[in-house]
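Q: I have 249 residues here and want to know how they pack in 3D. Can you give me a structure?
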Amino acid sequence: MGDKYEDLKEEMYQEYYIHSGKSKLLVKIWSDALGSNYPEGLNNFGFVTKKDLKQISKHLVDTNGSSLLDIGCGIGGPGLHIAEQHKLELTGIDIVEEAINQANLFKENFTLNYDAKFELGDFCNIPLPDASMDNMISIDAFWMVHDKVNALKEIKRVMKKKGKFIFTTWDSVLFDPASLFEANGFTIVANEVTENWKQYQLRIYDDILKHQKQLLEEIGDSAEILISEATTVPPMLEITERRLYCIQN
C-alpha cells in the first residue's frame, strides 16, 4: 500500500477485479502451475497455495477470540476460506473499491458463522477501533508498504493483546526484518520460506506470457497488469524470498 500504490487503485485494478473472476483461462493457468497445491474455489490469482493456507490456519488454531482482519483482502477468497474453516468473524480491507464490491458478492459462496464485512482501508489506515481484532492475516501485500514502521504501529493499535499477525510477503535476501518487528513490540513466532514459491511463480508468469493474446481477448485491458508483471518481475525473484511470518503482539 502506501502513497505510491494509491495511484494504482482506479487506473489499474478496478477493471481487473471486475473481469479476472470471469476468466477460465486464468483459472487454468493457476491450477496448472500449482497443481495439487491450487486452492480451488477462491478466485485468487495471487500466489497463495493450499499449503500456505494450512500454515496460516495452524498458527490460528491456538489463539483466542473470533475476530479476524484480512489486510489487502482483494476479493476476499483466502480470508473467507479461513473464516469458514475456523468459524471466525471476518473483516477485510483493501484500497481498491471494486475489490471490496466483489468481495461483498463473493462471500455468498461461503458458509459463514458471521456476516463478513469488507471496506476500504490500508495498512497505515485501518478503519477499526483500538484493540478490536483478535488476529490478522495478509496475503502478499506487506511488501508494498513504504512506511512499514507506521503500518506496524497501526496493526498493533488495532490488535488485541496476544493477537497474531500472520502474513506472506517477499523479502530481499539481504534484509532480515526480524529487528523491525521486534523494535515495534512484536514477538516472532514463525519465519519460514514458503514451499516451491519461485517454481510456482515463474511457471505462472511463463504461462501468462505464452497466453497473453488469449488473455487480452478474454479480459481486455485488464490483462495488461498481469502481462506487465510477468515481464518485469522474474529478474527480481533472484534477490528475494517469499516468506510466511507469524508475529505476536
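Q: Anything worth noting?
A: The first strand starts at residue 67 and ends at 71. The two ends are 22 Å apart (CA to CA).
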